[in-house]
Known about the structure:
The complex is a heterodimer of chains A (196) and B (352).
Chain A: H1 6-15, H2 19-29, H3 36-53, H4 59-77, H5 107-119, H6 123-134, H7 139-146, H8 150-170, H9 173-176
Helix pairs in contact in A: 1-3, 2-3, 3-4, 5-8, 6-8, 7-8
Chain B: H1 2-19, H2 26-38, H3 40-55, H4 96-122, E1 131-134, E2 141-144, E3 150-153, E4 158-163, E5 168-174, E6 176-180, E7 189-193, E8 196-200, E9 204-210, E10 214-221, E11 223-228, E12 237-240, E13 243-248, E14 251-256, H5 259-264, E15 272-279, H6 280-288, E16 295-297, H7 300-303, E17 306-312, H8 316-326, E18 329-334, E19 337-342
Parallel strand pairs in B: 5-7, 16-19
Antiparallel strand pairs in B: 1-4, 2-3, 3-6, 4-5, 6-9, 7-8, 8-11, 9-10, 10-13, 11-12, 13-14, 15-17, 18-19
Amino acid sequence: MPVLTDLDHWFTREILPHEESLTRFLARTWPRRDEVHDLRQETYARVYQAAAAQRPRLPKSFLFATARHLMTDRLRRSRVVSIEAVGDLHDSNVLTDERSPDRWLDARQTLKRLAEALDRLPDRCREVVWLRRVEDLPQKQIAARLGISEKTVEKQIAKGTRLIAQYFYGGAVEEELPRRRRSAPGHSRGSQQQTD
Amino acid sequence: MEANSKRIECAAAAWLAHRDSENWCERDQAQLEAWLRESDAHRVAWLRLASAWEQADRLKALGAGVPDGQIPPRGHWTLSPHFEARHALPRKRPRPALARVLAIAAVAAVFAVAASLLFVRQRAEPPVQPVVYRTGVGDSRTIRLADGSDATLSSDTIIAVALSRRERDIELRNGEAIFEVRKDASRPFVVHVDGRLVIAVGTRFAVRRDGDAGLRVVVTHGLVRLESDPAVNAAATLLPAGSVAQLSGDALEVRRMPIDQARELLSWRDGFVVFHDTPLAAAAHEFNRYNTRKLVIGDPAIAGLKVGGQFRWSNQEAFVRLIEQVFPVRTETRAGDIVLLAKKTSPRKRTY
């Protein structure tokens, strides 16, 4: 493990637990669902950078303020259609609760959430994560046990990590985001006949 | 951009998984550290995944009492002493809300079928008693008609549906609806609006009633025939996919555009309105279709300001606030409506 700094610990402890509400906020405010992931990551990077100089006193408020600024910047930069905002950038109700991350999840809730995350993994991925994390088998043995290559095991672990992080921090928000259908009338159903 | 953040996340995950393997070496370690130093985006993506993976160590608690090598089926954690029964995990949630909606829709469809069968039985031939569907301001819903066609009603819309053996007859009394028509050559699908007929067999199109004299037809698939009432002897107009026909009084204007652009006019179905160089007055009118609280242009000087962009129609306030930010416009609330007025400085025409 690369050596974790104070800043890293601060970020993990104070910022990541707000991922679920941050993701909701971004999704509600920004019109393009497929850009939420990117906005979130850039928000994190900006917060991390700012906190390197000085830790904000109210981490959650700072996180949301950063997200708002980022969206405003992007609005200004976008070229042709510049008022692309559909949500309310000034939405302040997300800021009311500067809850302490200590109370975020107790041990039991943490375990429950992890178990839910595990159960959401695709079959093969779930098997690999179980053997690695619960039974503590080395990757090599997992490969032998399941009759797959070590490379595949590694890939499944990478995938499992991403999906677990997504659910553990983000809750089910990402998968529940209202999907903006690109297709308008009718792509959803099977009756696509020709006309008269 | 989106691809970029996902790519970083995938790279971080690959590093993490590789580090977790037995093949990790010092050179890898040095490379990883270089990668992490490269940007804060790399660092935060890594931190997020590394801490989640570390947390996942707690999953060991689930292994208690499970023989090695056996992976319990999903949702079996209730057996573990770590959970009480009331914490039973939902099995792979199939989005209960959606399931419920589907169930309700299914029931509604059954009723609709039953209802139309009854009508067909009792009155073997026309006139068939129409079934009326309506939505309130700000609502939208899709109705599966008895013939398998779908009608998606926009805000404040009323349609009356009469399906007989010879014709599928829909009257659009107010608002707008998108029709996805099941092909049935023996029974044309006819939408009546104020004495005009929009006729299709199997296709997708939307019809909108604009006030008493206006009508708009958007065709996104197939071909639609637009006619006046047979009594009035006027030529029919054929509208292929990508057509937008606008009728005001007797004046008909047909535009052809790429299908995606035509579909954009139907974005309300996904909760949006889209403007391109649209005069503020028209944009306000558009918002008013979906909201009980109206936007009123209180000063003709600002009616022509051009707006563009995509907005959630339910979020009128965000729209107004943006207008106030970019235009010399101020607002007042009068009798519950939002009145847009010019600020003292003379407004310039700007395109946003």
